[in-house]
Amino acid sequence: MSTDPKGLTQLGKPAAIPANPDEATLERVPNPHTGTLYLARFTAPEFTSICPVTGQPDFGVLVIDYAPKDWIVESKSLKLFLQSFRNHGAFHEDCTVGVAKRIVDAIAPTWLRIGGYWNARGGMPIDVFWQTGPALEGLWLPDQGIAPYRSRG
C-alpha cells in the first residue's frame, strides 16, 4: 500500500485487473480535509463474484460510505480491487464484509458502512450490511438508494 501520492503504483498507469482480491493493492492518498467530518461514497453497481459451491456468477451492488480520517481511498485502486472478485469464489457475506475490512485496514477511517445488495439466486436475494460502529453525531448519512427487494426495480 502506498502512502505517498507520488508513490502510487496504479493511478495514471496501465494496470491489469488482479487475479484475486489477495493480489489486489488498495492505495491511499492524504485526506485533503483532515479534521472535517464528511462522508465519501463509492457505489459499485456491477459487482460480480463467483458462487464457491456452484461456480455460477453472482451479481450485486455495493454501496460503501465512509468518513475519512487521515487518508482517502484512491479510486482506481478500489475499482481494480473490486474487479478482482470477478473470478473469486466467495459467499455474499464474505465478499461484502471482506471488502469493508480491507478498506478499514488500508485507510483507518473514522467510520465506515457497507451495504451489499445481491441479486436473487435460487429465488432469494441476500443483502449484507456491516459498519465499524454507531454512526457519528453530525455526519450526514443519506439513504443508500437501493430499493428493498421487489425485483430491484
TrEMBL record:
The record's active-site residues are 51 (thioimide intermediate), 58 (proton donor)
Q: In which pathway does it act?
A: tRNA modification; tRNA-queuosine biosynthesis
EC no.?
A: 1.7.1.13
Q: Which GO terms describe its molecular function?
A: preQ1 synthase activity
Among the GO biological process terms of this entry, one is: tRNA queuosine(34) biosynthetic process
Q: Name the reaction it catalyses.
A: 7-aminomethyl-7-carbaguanine + 2 NADP(+) = 7-cyano-7-carbaguanine + 2 NADPH + 3 H(+)
What is the protein name stated in its UniProt record?
NADPH-dependent 7-cyano-7-deazaguanine reductase
